């Protein structure tokens, strides 16, 4: 994400910050567009739990949970890792090219998923193709909002990020309702058509206001001399390693451990994402006043406590409450990191580079977390998987605490 408060018509004289709209029709249209991009990138990833359950019970019943979860993990990892490369492309003016390319890939990948019958085909279409398309869209979707807002930046970003939770509500319900009636292929194609319509809206309304004053590098190794930034990245790694385990496995857990019918269990993921909608807007609104790191820390702590509580939840009512609460508090790990990186950066000129580095840590955590959880589930049962989730989120909370304490004590790199 890049902040445009110092963007100018020439490379030497900065533009006054009051020229950034910080509101207005065009600015909020970018939020709408970013909302739809989140809905069709992170929202698709947040929906993978419903595909995980279907694949295990039907299409890929001969494949283990761990191997199936690699599809969603690769998709999520590519979303974040590809962003490291697409960030500089956004900086030099290729936003529209990234938008069109990413839109084509996510829609094409979903259409191809509808035709899949083998594991490798699903990995190629849903994992790699949609993942690459999402990677083209994610960084630009965050970066463009920041160029239109100053004091409302966290709030606007939170509204945009809520699209990912809405996608995690809409798409699982669409799939669960349509798949028994019209089959896997057409249920998936309906989702693809919905994605196509929304991506066309994004292409129609999204426009770049200003480019960053300096082109950024892919890496800034000096940043790791700053304790707050390093500890935050550690928190990102462990947080994303553990946080998405319930999103992938809650439907399977509900049927096997709480005795839910498959029809009802399918709705646990939308319920979790419904809680996440508010968890991405309300904390972000407050973060503009408290600071993003101060808001992220308590939400991470509560997420860890809820992950431990998951161990002893075996009733329908308990799982529904868990889904709502866990969705709310875990939602901050997607919506607040961009503005947190801004707060931990000494200069706006390095924000884009550092954001790409931070997302790389998160991407690796996402890549390995759910497959490892699936392997633990197969070898040791649900208790091992739940403990793995809870311990990862606990380490993430401790790392965020260390980042907050070290920032308060000024443990930054010296110029």
Automatic annotation (TrEMBL):
Cellular localization per UniProt: Membrane
Presence of keyword Transmembrane: yes
PROSITE patterns with a match to the protein in the record: MFS (PS50850)
InterPro entries (alphabetical): MFS, MFS_dom, MFS_trans_sf, Proton-linked_MCT
Record's GO cellular component terms: membrane
Recorded superkingdom: Eukaryota
SUPFAM superfamilies referenced in this protein's UniProt entry, alphabetically: MFS general substrate transporter
Membrane association type: Multi-pass membrane protein
Entry keywords, A to Z: Membrane, Transmembrane, Transmembrane helix
Pfam families, per the entry: MFS_1
First-listed, main subcellular location of the protein, grouped into a coarse class: membrane
Ranges that cross the membrane: 27-48, 68-87, 94-113, 119-143, 155-174, 186-208, 229-251, 263-283, 295-313, 319-344, 356-377, 383-405
Major facilitator superfamily (MFS) profile domain boundaries: 26-408
GO molecular-function terms, A-Z: transmembrane transporter activity
Family to which the UniProt record says this protein belongs: Belongs to the major facilitator superfamily. Monocarboxylate porter (TC 2.A.1.13) family.
Name of the protein this chain belongs to: Major facilitator superfamily (MFS) profile domain-containing protein
Species: Aspergillus nanangensis
